[in-house]
Design a protein that fits this description.
single chain; 323 residues; alpha/beta; elongated
Length: 323
């Protein structure tokens, strides 16, 4: 049976029960005073009557705290707060986003869910915000291997305004730049949007995100030439000479991170097609999340949605912030 046939994907009461079970394992938590498992459920409460709903709409998942006497739902303090969309539509959107390998566009979601494009666009950005882990654990701990590479995507309109042409061979100054690390042992990826690819910009980022005992592999780019001074060892391949895997040392390559980029670029160019720099970090987080929680890491689609749901608290995004 399809996951989209589950009751919590269609019934609002079941959707609240599903999210409450995920976020309130020890009982309802009052977002006003922080008291745990000291609230009771309010049944049969309805909103004020309106033309569209003469009898008002039933308020599902409504609780009242015995301590501070305030009402709340599981939406409070999460990405769902103040959203007019039914919770079951949120759960459908989350499942579609985390199970689509190359992403799903806001236009597609607005057609599938039957909501406006503006709502779908804002919804997808709030979901992406939850996919940002903020994990500071260094890559390559205990002497692990880390691959490092960078890529170019889109056009930075501050450097290349609409209508302005750049000749062949232009050195990518007008493109957005992204640095990605992949830990071979943990099979985790981390992408960071950078302003430029200078050594003074990249090396501090690598020092902050890679353990000193790690083995680092890169391509032949000049900014990486002295990485051995900061890490246990460093080696590189010469892509310019057609060298992608060294015969005498087959472990020296960046094919893993290149594979990550192949999925990222197919999604960004084929599904999303355009992204401004102010949003790119969220799109990068989306692809990092799906890569880090993929099937080869033992995570199925339904589990991926549960992992994302467990991080919705404290990551509310208002409409002004995405711009």
């Amino acid at each position: 049976m399809s996951v989209l046939s589950a009751p919590y994907m269609h019934d609002e009461a079941a959707a609240f029960a599903h999210v409450e079970a995920m976020l309130w394992a020890d009982g309802p938590i009052c977002p006003h005073c922080g008291v745990i498992d000291s609230a009771y459920k309010l049944e049969g409460v309805r909103t004020k009557a309106s033309k569209k709903n003469p009898e008002g709409k039933e308020r599902h998942g409504l609780w009242k705290c015995r301590g501070c006497r305030k009402q709340f739902t599981v939406r409070k303090g999460t990405i769902f707060e103040e959203s007019h969309l039914p919770l079951h539509l949120w759960l459908q959107a989350i499942h579609l986003m985390v199970s689509s390998k190359k992403g799903i566009s806001s236009h597609q979601l607005h057609r599938v869910l039957g909501i406006t494009y503006k709502s779908a666009w804002f919804l997808t950005h709030r979901i992406r915000e939850c996919m940002r882990s903020g994990d500071l654990a260094p890559f390559g701990s205990n002497g692990g291997t880390v691959e490092v590479d960078e890529t170019f995507i889109g056009n930075d309109r501050t450097k290349k305004p609409h209508g302005e042409k750049k000749g062949r061979g232009y050195d990518h100054k007008h493109k957005h730049k992204m640095l990605t690390l992949v830990d071979r042992d943990t099979k985790q990826a981390k992408s960071i949007i950078v302003d430029d690819l200078k050594k003074s910009t990249l090396i501090p980022i690598l020092r902050e995100n890679i353990a000193a005992e790690a083995v680092v592999y890169t391509d032949e780019a000049g900014q990486y030439h002295k990485l051995a001074d900061d890490f246990a060892s460093h080696d590189f391949t010469r892509h310019g000479a057609g060298d992608y895997v060294r015969r005498e040392a087959p472990e020296v390559h960046t094919n893993t991170v290149e594979g990550f980029y192949s999925i990222f670029k197919r999604g960004m160019k084929g599904v999303y097609q355009h992204c401004g720099k102010q949003h790119l970090h969220r799109y990068a987080a989306e692809f990092d999340f799906r890569y880090n929680n993929r099937k080869s890491n033992g995570v199925e689609d339904s589990q991926r949605a549960e992992i994302m749901l467990s991080s919705v608290v404290g990551k509310r995004l208002t409409y002004k912030l995405p711009h």
